[in-house]
Amino acid sequence: MDDSARKAALQRLEPFIGSWEMEAIFPADPSVVMGGGRCVFEWMQGGQLLIQRIEIPAPEAPDSIGVIAANAGNDSYTQHYFDSRGVVRLYAMTYVDGIWKLLRDSPDFSPLDFSQRFTGTFSDDGDVIRGEWETSSDGSTWKHDFDLVYRRMK
Fold first, then answer.
1. Phi/psi at 110 (5° precision)
2. Torsion angle of alpha carbons 135, 137, 140, 144, nearest 10°?
3. 13: closest CA among 66, 55, 56, 54?
4. pLDDT band with cut points at 50, 70 and 90 for residue 26
5. Which phi and psi (to 5°) does residue 16 adopt?
6. Domain extents for the chain?
7. Cα(149)–Cα(21) distance, integer angstroms
8. Is 35 helix (H, G, I), strand (E, B) or coil?
9. CA atoms of 129 and 124, how far apart (whole Å)
10. Which residue from 100, 105, 111 is spatially nearest to 50, judged by alpha carbons?
11. What is the pLDDT of residues 52-94, one digit of tens each?
12. Can you tell me the distance from the alpha carbon of 100 to that of 104, in angstroms, rounded to the nearest whole number?
């Protein structure tokens, strides 16, 4: 990927930059909301990678770091994911017209016991991302896992 294409791809991720509050809502009991999470998106020094840091004050939810890189030759990205449980994964990522998608459907650094996908939609003002995680044990039948809401901190 030449420098101008990489720069254009990375500039498309500018709406992510900043600090976000996070909350998760689980389908088993939608009245239970796990809030208090915090996410920060920032450029790595040099501006060639986007870093996502998540801290969640709940022992059942891991803290994580994502490193997002632009892919050569198309409008997609790869998110390298690492969490406090020692889990390491690769997600295919796209961001088009305010829709953020992540997909893991093949083995990478860890076995593929299940597939995962996330779809998040930015609000018109860019201050809220409403998304949902889904899982699949067979790669074709998807089950809602939980909703995730990001709210930009001001």
1. -135, 160
2. -30
3. 66
4. confident
5. -75, -25
6. 3-152
7. 8
8. strand
9. 10
10. 100
11. 999 998 888 899 999 999 998 778 999 999 999 999 999 999 9
12. 14
Instruction: Considering only residues 31 and 38, tell me which one the structure prediction assigns the higher pLDDT.
Output: 38
Task: Mention every residue, 6+ apart, whose C-beta is less than 8 A from residue 70.
Answer: 1, 5, 6, 9, 10, 77
This prediction's pTM: 0.93
To the question of domain 3-152 being in CATH 2.40.128.20, the answer is: yes
Using the CB atoms, write b or e for 107-126: b if 16+ within 10 Å: eeeeeeeebbbbebebeeee
More confident residue, 137 or 109: 137
Tokens of residue 125, six digits: 């003002």
CA 145 from centroid of its chain's CA atoms: 15
- Residues forming beta bridges with residue 104, ordered by sequence position: 116
Measuring CA to CA, which residue among 26, 18, 32 is closest to residue 151?
Answer: 18
**By C-alpha distance, which of 96, 130, 105 is closest to 22?**
130
